[in-house]
Design a protein that fits this description.
single chain; 290 residues; alpha+beta; Butyryl-CoA Dehydrogenase, subunit A, domain 3; Nuclear Transport Factor 2, Chain: A; 2 domains; 12 helices; 6 strands; 52% helix; globular
Length: 290
């Protein structure tokens, strides 16, 4: 194999992991793919003989690009109308994945990361999710290793209290989600109440132009809220069960186009969080994955 073909193969082996890293940093599958593609010419022009660990080199480059994107997008996030949720992706849970990597893909986890500043988010993900050594994290964010350790400590504290309870998705989680959806479709409010956790929340992201709750809906109001959503669906709407960010979910199609994605965080047999994305700009990755 020629040196060029070997370097191409190395990049392709890392592509999926790099997209996963960039997606967790930016919350956008579209942006993640663009950033990894942007890393390609940099890799292609590098002196590969001088790179001892290509995966570490590529992680540093993609992390820097993602950090720059977060910084440039900070004002847009601050001015966003209503709750900001990440772009949903059609991802099945992988039983072989470590729990930290599986949890970090969920919408709830990514939403909590919005509490962090750009550098905090990159440091936290690299250290706690991807297990990158602090000397390599320091190179990615332009800080010293001791400073990165302190940033990671602060980030863990800020994330800890906001994380929804996480349990790996299994058959029971799907059964609970399906039962909840069935109850919503028939307007069974008592059934919905029985399937909700005491501290359940429903959080919706419609952006500036699409109808969605502007604040989280608390447990007592969720049954009526969800039943009303189901009742307002057009009669020709198609509902498809689909894993969303590794958790049970659905997509709603109207006239062939995906208009809504919902994911359910289920713990101990009850629904703890309902994540609804209606912003069409965030549904494009789901349409591509279909």
């Amino acid at each position: 194999m020629t040196a060029t073909r070997a370097s191409d193969a190395c990049f392709e082996r890392e592509r999926s992991r790099l997209i996963g890293l960039a997606y967790r940093i930016t919350g956008s599958r579209t942006v993640a793919e663009d950033l990894v593609q942007e890393a390609w010419p940099r890799w292609n022009g590098a002196d590969h003989d001088a790179i001892a660990r290509p995966e570490a080199w590529l992680t540093t480059v993609v992390s820097r690009l993602a950090l720059d994107h977060l910084r440039s997008a900070a004002h847009q996030r601050e001015a966003y109308v209503g709750p900001w949720l990440p772009e949903p992706v059609a991802a099945e849970p992988d039983p072989a994945q470590q729990a930290e990597l599986a949890e970090s893909l969920t919408i709830g986890f990514l939403a909590v990361l919005e509490r962090l500043g750009p550098t905090e988010r990159v440091v936290f993900l690299l250290a706690d999710v991807f297990g990158v050594p602090f000397d390599e994290i320091a190179a990615a964010v332009g800080k010293t290793p001791p400073a990165c350790r302190q940033i990671a400590v602060r980030a863990r504290a800020r994330v800890r209290d906001g994380r929804p309870r996480f349990q790996p998705t299994d058959d029971q989680a799907w059964q609970v989600a399906v039962a909840f959806l069935t109850a919503a479709q028939v307007g069974d409010l008592d059934g919905l109440v029985s399937l909700l956790g005491e501290g359940a929340l429903a959080i919706s992201d419609g952006g500036a132009d699409h109808h969605a709750a502007r604040r989280p809906v608390v447990a007592a109001r969720i049954p009526r809220f969800v039943a009303n959503l189901a009742a307002r669906l057009p009669t020709d709407a198609v509902i498809e069960l689909r894993a969303i960010n590794g958790e049970p979910g659905i997509v709603v199609r109207e006239r062939g186009a995906i208009t809504t994605a919902m994911a359910f965080t289920v713990a101990d047999g009850q629904v703890e969080r309902i994540w609804t994305i209606r912003n069409p700009d965030k549904l494009r990755a789901l349409a591509i994955d279909a």
